[in-house]
Amino acid sequence: MSEVNRxxxxxxxxxxxxxxxRLSLLxxxxxxxxxxxxxxxxxxxxxxxxxxxxxxxxxxxxxxxEREFPASRPNLLLLVDAGPAGVDDPAVAAEAxxxxxxxxxxxxxxxxxSYWQTRSPALRADDGHEALIAARIQGDxxxxxxxxxxxxxxxxGAHGPVRVSVGGPVAVLHEMQTVIQEDLLRAELIALPxxxxxxxxxxxxxxxxxLPLGIGIVAILGTNAVLRGLTEFTDVSVFALNLTTAxxxxxxxxxxxxxxxxxxxxxxxxxxxxxxLATTLRTAGRTVLFSALTVAVSLAAMLxxxxxxxxxxxxxxxxxxxxxxxxxxxxxxxALLLLxxxxxxxxxxxxxARVRVPGRRGAAVxxxxxxxxPGSAEGTGWGRAAALVMRRAPVFAVATTAGLVLLGLxxxxxxxxxxxxxxxxxxxxxxxxxxxxxxxFPGNPSGGxxxxxxxxxxxxxxxAYRDRIAGLPGVARVDGPVVSGTYAYFAxxxxxxxxxxxxxxxxxxxxxxxxxxxxxxxxxxxVLVDSKDAIAxxxxxxxxxxxxxxxxxxxxxxxxxxxxxxxVVLNALSLTAMFGAVVWVFQDGHLSGFLGFTATGSxxxxxxxxxxxxxxxxxxxxxxxxxxxIKEEYDHSGDHDHAVRFGLRRTGGLITAAAVxxxxxxVAIGTSRVTNTxxxxxxxxxxxxxxxxxxxxxxxPAVMKLTGRATWWAPAPLRAFHARFGxxxxxxxxxxxxxxxxxxxxxxxxxxxxxxxREPVGR
Length: 763
Description:
Layout: H1 12-18, H2 21-39, H3 57-68, E1 76-81, H4 90-104, E2 109-114, H5 115-118, E3 130-137, H6 141-155, E4 157-159, E5 162-167, H7 169-203, H8 206-230, H9 240-268, H10 273-300, H11 308-339, H12 381-391, H13 393-408, E6 416-417, H14 429-440, E7 449-454, H15 459-470, E8 475-484, E9 487-494, H16 501-512, E10 518-523, H17 524-558, H18 562-574, H19 576-587, H20 592-595, E11 603-604, H21 607-637, H22 640-670, H23 675-707, H24 716-725, H25 750-753
Parallel strand pairs: 6-11
Antiparallel strand pairs: 1-3, 1-5, 2-3, 4-5, 7-9, 7-10, 8-9
């Protein structure tokens, strides 16, 4: 048998994945059913916080105040609306006192206080029509949420002459968790049918379209079970569920698209089912595994941060990426082996069954291999586009780079803040309560700072310290001290907003004050300052992990020194539009009415870090798809320009289709009524589309044309390292290279190996 016609040798992984296909699918079905059971109710066990650094001074002070002075840290607020009668009306006052006494008798409630007990001006609205009853629900986040669910219905609504609304931090977090779970269900109901329609448009065959969707569902259900297990050992954010759905569908579909497309291509070229699957796993399968590693590394970088909000996305992201890759490399091959040519069944695009060969009369018969002419690499829209870009490479490189930088300029004006009730829809009850407090109550009581004093001191020492901090710029009032044993605290009301720059500076000045006892500051501004410090301290490590891992992995794929550097820089450029849009839309409030959110003038501190890690990983996903095909062709032909054109021609439609599908999933997530989730979904969708349609289509071929054959250079020690440990999609060693500048060998093998595409995927 000739070398050309010999069927490809099956590797160990191919034999493993296809040894018992029916058994593999049956086991997968059983495991998926168990995952449904194990992951049920996971949303109820997840938290809504996690934005603070657990090792920060503000966190220590908060825990000490909650322990020693529970009444000082109310997390439940009842907004009592007295209507025209006013809060000082005798009937209103009597009913309000009755409600406060009833609340104080509830199990798990401590520190109940109200305007009618204390006559504090801070608890009475300026117009005299509303006042507050404040209390603290004991226990951790989940315990407090359970208590709130139990008691809230009994207090919400009309009570004689007053109407009560429930708010406070516990109500905000609980309502946010509920809204996220409702929105996630709606997003899945939107994304699944739209994705199925797009897959049918891409593949034509309904059978082929269902395979990626099935892989995505398996990955999502498996990750839910993983998250449920993690809640037994650590805190996990409810926001991570959104990433599970988005990446579970998006990446599983990406990987399955790549595998199924290559399998159908091999079948169309005349290969048998077994040979087609062996070639697919040796080529596309290796690329999928490699891509999953790059995405997982980008997400794993969030583990270096102390906030469990960010760590939760690393847990969810790593799990869903590995499960998606495992399903694509184990379950999908088993299904393809059983289906064989039936993968093309239920073809909904029979009109496109006959594919014309560029430059020839007539059409190729479906399922046959036709020779390709010398110009076939430019014979499609993507090939012609690549040729155009490479002919005008300097123009496209400069114009595209300048445009991306320009889109990112708004991020230079970013202002960081904290997540609060304004993340919720304007009509959410806890949002309404907090907005009434902001607008109608004096001194912004929700934006105060607390100074914890630890150690024994005399009344004179306390008084001297209070007078000193009262004289600081930006301090409106200081109350206290309230003393309990060796602990005391002072309540500081700043003149500015809760977390504006003046209040953040005040935190630093309070911490710098000398005192005869140990002090620490907490409050919204102090938590923000500590969170920013923690992120700034760990960010270089996270970026370093991503960059080093990317350089290493891309080098193992390509054997080039320059391509990994290009990948890092171009991936970073693909994110500029996302970061610019985040500030222009969500911070500055443009399109807030259209998108339905409340602009706060700032961005939650952890969101840019999260979006960077997710979007960078997804960009690498598409970068690997393109580079692997370019490298495979370069190994065969030795012609750099031809390999770039060929790679874009063969993957341009695939990458675009995958990006559009992933963007649809992210936009579905972006329909959430919670602002942070909306920002994550819409921002990453924009980054994915910019990467696929601008960076991969324009900037990559332009830059690779400018660098020429030097693109593939590596010093001798690194060439030897790559020869031993590198990853080759083609499965054959690269031919010996001539020095850069010599005439490249003619791509003589192209006519022997390039199959005619059965369907114009993604075109």
